[in-house]
Protein: Lactate 2-monooxygenase
Organism: Danxiaibacter flavus
Amino acid sequence: MNSTTATQLSHGMQYQLQIYFAGMQQIKPQLPVAYEALEQKARGVMKPEAFAYIAGGAGAETTMQNNIAAFNKWQIIPRMLGDVTGRSMDVELFGTKLPSPVLLGPVGVLSIAHPEAEIAVARAARTLHVPQVVSTVSSKTIEEIAEAHGDHPHWFQLYWGSDNDFTRSVINRAEKAGYGAIVVTLDTRIFAWRERDIQNAYLPFLFGEGLGNYFSDPVFLKAVGDPAKDKMKTMMHFAHCFSNAGSTWEDLAVIRDSTRLPIILKGIQHPDDAKKAIDHGADGIIVSNHGGRQLDGAVASLDTLDSIATAVGDKTTILFDSGIRRGADVFKAMALGAKAVLIARPYAYGLALAGEQGVKEVVGNLLADTDLTLGLAGCNSWAEVTKERLIRVN
Ligand SMILES: Cc1cc2nc3c(=O)[nH]c(=O)nc-3n(C[C@H](O)[C@H](O)[C@H](O)COP(=O)(O)O)c2cc1C
Ligand SMILES: O=C(O)C(=O)c1ccccc1
């Protein structure tokens, strides 16, 4: 057995000590530990339509539900009596070493959850050494959020709409502000049928939330003038810059030619699209169905991961999201071929409930749970976490 000092303890072991300590003093965590209870608590403090916007999905929300259910079809087979005291959750992504395979995925309009929005998220992310992927429709600007990160890794998520000048402008701003990669979301070229939001007549960006990067962009401002003057014109131009149902694989050259940063395509669900991503110059992909918020009736995101990893796992970097809630979920996605995972709704609820501290607590819990899962399964590193560690049960 290795002897370790307190500073060398893994996330999970540090956490376990904290839990013993808290238990001895009867100190409960500030937020619910279980995801389901966290969501219910957030429901209790948020404006109903803002909660519905975050919690909801497209259509009947079957894909959103199936994203969660898909994890139960795979189960972990633990191995006994290996020494896992020295285990590590380290990963390397696009040349950057990270202490865990968890990233905070892009979530737009975070001001509907908390006034400090992405700044609070950035501070929590930095404390935990977890990268943040910042949305084009963030409530704070690209530059403000970058400042909160300093030299801590942060990536920019691009909504690639119909205005190439706007696209180049925001990529340029992100590059200048020190973002380390451009994540291009492909599954939201058309905004989906979301029943809760239609019922509530609630699309937050139409009320000006999440438009910080548009209202601070010289190309956008040149087109609309004063955004407050003619709101209809401003919104129509936002729609133009946000969406594009006509873009093709060949058009990706616009983005490839605009930046030297790694380009990661988000929303891949088919092995042939993963191959196309590589052929068109992408450096990585995110297997994702946008948390079931776009195409309802679509396959659960986890159910597409295995075939995509089999097809291109040795040729590109595969990340995964949609339904990661606990350490076991991280383990299963990693075993099926992901190099890292993203979470979205869990940290948005942490933010809504307790700002920076809430994000820190929710993400810290996931890191501890993941580390303990790795050790309990009998693994020392992600290299040992392969498909052979799982069994498909139905
Ligand atoms: C409120 C909300 C806003 C989102 N905004 C964006 C966005 O701006 N850009 C993007 O690429 N994905 C966005 N997503 C999708 C997430 O990045 C992620 O793909 C999805 O929520 C799956 O993760 P989850 O199951 O952990 O929520 C958003 C998700 C939510 C819940
Ligand atoms: O709600 C979303 O899923 C999303 O991607 C989005 C798009 C535009 C504004 C805010 C969020």
